[in-house]
Amino acid sequence: MSGPALPKGYGPNRRKTPPALKLWVAVIIANIAGILISVWTAGRLRAIPAEASTETWLFALYYGSMFVTAIVDALWLDEILFKGAFRLTHLQGKTGDTVRPSDDVETVAAATSRSTVSFPVLLILSGVVSYFAFNAINGNFNFFWRNLGVHMANLRGDDEEGLQRRLQAIAELSIRRAPHDRTLIPRTLIGQLERGGEEAVWAAWALGRFSDLPPRQRGLLYDALIAATRGDDPRITREATIALARLQNRDVTKTLIAELDKTLAEEPADRRLIYSTGWVQTMDSVEKLEAILGRSDIEAQRIAAWALAQHRDEKGGREVVKILEDRLPSAPFLTRCAIVHALMITSDETSNRALMHAYDTATPEELEAECPLIDIDLRPDGQGEAARLLEPVDTYEMKILQTMGALRATDAELRGEVEPWLEKVAAESEEGSLKQSRARSLLEGIREGRDDTELAPPAAKK
Prior knowledge:
By secondary structure, the chain is an all-alpha fold. It contains 22 helices and four strands. The protein folds into four domains: 13-144, no CATH class; 163-247, no CATH class; 282-407, Serine Threonine Protein Phosphatase 5, Tetratricopeptide repeat; 410-449, no CATH class.
């Protein structure tokens, strides 16, 4: 005899939860858990753990959570799109021979259609979506690690064998920026500055390349570099001084002058210090730069000429014009080239007289010779970062005419000297030559820029 009928919802009459619904709940749980794990691990990895082993298991956890999420998502999609064919055939082992008559039609159809392609495709698609979704949620973590994190991780250790790896990492970080935290890399480099040694020398140089940092965030750099200038290591002091000068921090002026005094006793002088005075631009540097103009080191002279010109806008800065003009007649040829370029920067029209004299006293060979550029290697090892000065390359005579074109001549007395001189240069030049064309162009520009109608007699007025 059969027992009494069970109430609806109990025993065999209980309504079973559809697998798709169960998998949907699993999808929600897996995705939330995966996101939380990825956010936590990405945050730890951005902080760059001290131990490489810690980084390994963090990455395993990061990508492991992504992989688990992709599997759960793929199972749910298989359930929705293919009625759970993969689950039935590969996880539950159902085939056309093992299905029961009581199974529903969809289960029988799914169990008998053995697809070997559908689930791998779904898994790949789910993995790709998870990869980009996790990456977006974590602020483009993959980009961060590929462009920044790997180099920051390479700063680990203090073994001698890994020194070059660490120095190369500092060099890479000096040209990279973190889009969501602009102080991240400077803070990392400051950590290297504070550790001392060769890494600190390179870190000081690297921090000097962050002149694009907003002024309100530069205080972080200033404090660390100023502290470094007060240390016991002369190499770190010098690199930090140059870095502060490149960042145009005037608090470094006294230290910079002291370093200039030291380098004047060196052979050759550290050209980077001379170059740095052109960034800080304080009149305290002018006397030192004038002394360098008289040294035997021609490259140092050329850089000093450029640096002097950078002081033109300082209070009392116009005195550098006289320094440059006085040195021009007796300077070596390459230094004269640099002084002519510097006079173009200072833009004092009275320099036309010095320029005409420089042209007239130059030999024909010098007039046709090129005035070369200056490349100053700023990196501690002298490779990889060159500052280029005195552009563009041109012949000495063209450099003079170009500078006179920038200065013009507005004073009537000065025009009375410049215009006949330009007429003479044009007349003596080869017909159709660039020199003749430039001299005539300059002459026309000076004449067009003046108004002599008030000086002309009434009959001559139109």
